[in-house]
């Protein structure tokens, strides 16, 4: 087994690090990460006072009474290409990434 990697046109070997987890306790729901992800991996959600996760409709500003705070979620992890752009823009260091063994 070895870490999945690709050879770039320059000949350099690149080892992608795929998103593996997101700490919702430290996430402030700023949405910087979802704006830089080009692969539809992340989705903004709300946490209710009971701790339930509810979908946030970005076009409906009146639904913020349904939840206590916003958090990011990893909704389509399989789409991740391992670029780590989300991690680079996150002000709270919420993300963990890892290479994939093949
Ligand atoms: S590593 Fe890249 S593709 Fe994966 S979730 Fe982060 S920004 Fe999206
Ligand atoms: S950038 Fe970080 S703090 Fe902001 S929503 Fe994404 S995970 Fe949460």
Overall form: elongated
Structural class: mainly beta
Please state roughly what percent of the residues sit in beta strands, choosing from under 5%, 5-15%, 15-25%, 25-35%, 35-45% or over 45%: 25-35%
Give a list of the ligands. Answer: iron/sulfur cluster
Which architecture does the CATH hierarchy give at level 2? Answer: 2-Layer Sandwich
Number of strands: 7
Work out the helix count. 2
Number of domains: 1
Biggest sheet, open or closed, and with what strands and sense? 3 strands, antiparallel
Give the integer mean of the pLDDT values. Answer: 94
Gyration radius (Cα, Å) is: 16 Å
The spatial strand order of the largest sheet comes to 5-4-6
Which sequence of SSEs, written as H and E, runs from N to C? EEEHEEEHE
Distance from N terminus to C terminus (CA atoms, Å) equals: 5 Å
Which helices and strands, and how do they pair?
Elements: E1 6-7, E2 13-14, E3 18-22, H1 32-36, E4 42-47, E5 53-55, E6 69-74, H2 85-89, E7 95-98
Bound molecules: iron/sulfur cluster (2 copies).
Provide structural commentary.
With 102 residues, the protein is mainly beta. The protein has a single domain, classed as Alpha-Beta Plaits (2-Layer Sandwich), CATH 3.30.70.20. Helix content is 10%, strand content 27%. The protein is built from 2 helices and 7 strands; from the N terminus they run βββαβββαβ. It has helices at residues 32-36, 85-89; strands at residues 6-7, 13-14, 18-22, 42-47, 53-55, 69-74, 95-98. The strands form 3 sheets. The protein has a 3-stranded antiparallel sheet with strand order 5-4-6, with no helix packed on it. A two-stranded antiparallel ribbon has the order 1-2. A two-stranded antiparallel ribbon has the order 3-7. Strand 1 (6-7) and strand 2 form a beta hairpin. The chain starts with 5 loop residues before the first strand and ends with a strand. The structure holds iron/sulfur cluster (2 copies).
